[in-house]
Design brief:
Strand content: over 45%
Shape: globular
Structural class: mainly beta
Number of helices: 0
Number of strands: 10
Order of helices and strands: EEEEEEEEEE
Length: about 190
């Protein structure tokens, strides 16, 4: 038995349901740090799908204030067409930009404006559980946990959002290695 045709959904009065894609930025974080390739401007945003249909982010416009100087960047998030967020769910965007003119540790702030579009329903959901951070190397933290899926997933991008004790976003990271799954295993 196949999935129901989402376009055929109708209200009780027989009129089609209007699909309204919308997202709201719920938190941001910004830093200038000494990255592996030199001074790096970093920004992250958490967002919630506040519409009534699945969405993808089609553009992220980030405005930074770094030590009193304004910087603006606009980009399409990596794998945006595969990052389908259902109504009520939260997801993230993250940005790294090497800039030798910046000084690591300089105060930074950021605002984000996200454009979204209606997406087709998500075919596969990836679940993360038992996430654990370990300071098991000098100056280096590792993350462990279990990923599983409810179907076959050849390519995925998993974002992890970090929050402080007051529930403020402090950063976002995403896995750099793909973990293909067939729906019956965990990684």
């Amino acid at each position: 038995m196949g999935k129901p045709d989402r376009a055929s959904v109708a209200r009780r009065d027989g009129l089609p349901v209007q699909r309204n894609p919308a997202v709201a930025v719920t938190g941001t974080a910004a830093y200038v740090f000494d990255g592996a390739e030199g001074p790096t401007l970093y920004g992250a945003a958490a967002y919630e799908n506040t519409g009534n249909c699945p969405v993808i982010i089609t553009n992220a416009a980030l405005s930074f204030n770094v030590g009193g100087t304004a910087y603006q960047y606009s980009f399409v998030p990596i794998m945006n067409d595969k990052t389908v967020v259902l109504p009520g769910e939260t997801s993230f965007v993250a940005f790294w930009h090497k800039d030798s003119s910046l000084t690591p540790g300089t105060a930074a702030a950021m605002t984000a404006s996200l454009d979204c579009a209606k997406a087709e329903g998500r075919d596969v959901t990836v679940y993360a559980k038992d996430i654990f951070l370990a300071d098991n190397y000098p100056g280096f933290t590792t993350m462990t946990g279990t990923l599983s899926s409810d179907g076959e997933c050849d390519l995925n991008l998993v974002y992890i959002g970090f929050y402080d004790s007051s529930d403020n976003l402090i950063g976002v990271w995403h896995f750099t290695k793909n973990a293909p799954m067939d729906g019956s295993d965990s990684k």
